[in-house]
Amino acid sequence: MEKEKTYAFCALLSRMKYISRWGLMRQSRTETVSEHTVETAILSHVLALLARDTLGQQVRPEVVAVAALYHDASEILTGDLPTPVKYKNEELKNAYKEVERESATQLAALLPDELQETLRPCLTGQVLKPEEATLLKAADRISALVKCIEEGAAGNNEFTSAKAQQIKLLKEMDCPAAELFLKEFLPCYEQNLDELVRF
Fold first, then answer.
1. How many CB atoms lie within 10 A of CB 40?
2. What band does 90 get if pLDDT is binned at 50, 70 and 90?
3. What is the pLDDT of residues 22-44, one digit of tens each?
4. CA gap 199, 195 in Å, rounded
5. 112: exposed, middle or buried (C-beta count within 10 Å: 0-12, 13-18, 19+)?
6. Distance between CA atoms of residues 61 and 93, nearest Å
7. Global pTM?
8. What is the Cβ-side half-sphere exposure of residue 19, based on CA atoms within 13 angstroms?
9. Is 141 exposed, middle or buried (0-12, 13-18, 19+ CB in 10 A)?
10. C-alpha torsion 117→123→129→135, nearest 10
11. Measured CA angle at 72 (ends 70, 75), to 5 deg
12. What is the DSSP string of 31-88?
């Protein structure tokens, strides 16, 4: 009897919850790639809505959010390479980008043939227009900034310079939706639950 074909794609992606982020930093609470992915997807969707509905840009919030769900999927195969290593120089940066592309191709191959062409561009980010890719990158950085804020609130000074770096990088992006978020949404991350649910 012939064995039924199975597809490991979803089971492999579910392992994002086992991959820790911020490997070089002392954390008050460990953050996983899975947590970061969900937060980035929410943030990217909100940024894209701001870009479209408030700022009048021609972007697709749903597409940006779906791409965000898969933006770190390759880390299942590569692990979370620390930023200082990943961006140490142009040669390392380009080599890691190639590893990410190859990992995305390997992950797509774990899907049924009829799904591969649809999901591969989400895994690689090629589904995004340039302005949408900027929104996703901004959401990724805002998620990192939120982590820095949370660690600071927990009394951990380890993330002080990382926080300053993320703010600097976000301001350099020239992303109006991110600037609006920093002004109107980010201050709420400093509030406690009672302050947040003031109806």
1. 26
2. confident
3. 988 999 999 999 999 999 999 99
4. 9
5. exposed
6. 28
7. 0.90
8. 20
9. buried
10. 160
11. 125
12. -BHHHHHHHHHHHHHHHHHIIIIIT-----HHHHHHHHHHTTTTHHHH----HHHHTS
Q: Which amino acid is at 158?
A: E
Cα–Cα distance for residue pair 100/6, rounded to 1 Å: 24
CA dist 66 and 42 (Å) reads 10
- Asked if 43 and 51 touch (Cβ cutoff 8 Å), the reply is no
Rounded CA gap, 89 and 164, in Å?
21
- Residue-wise pLDDT for 11-23, tens only, equals 999 999 999 999 8
129 phi and psi angles, rounded to 5 deg:
-75, 160
Contact predicate 136/67, CB 8 Å: yes
Cα separation, 28 vs 37, whole angstroms = 19
The pLDDT of residue 54 is above 90: yes
DSSP 19: P
Reported as type and span, the H/E element at residue 3 is none
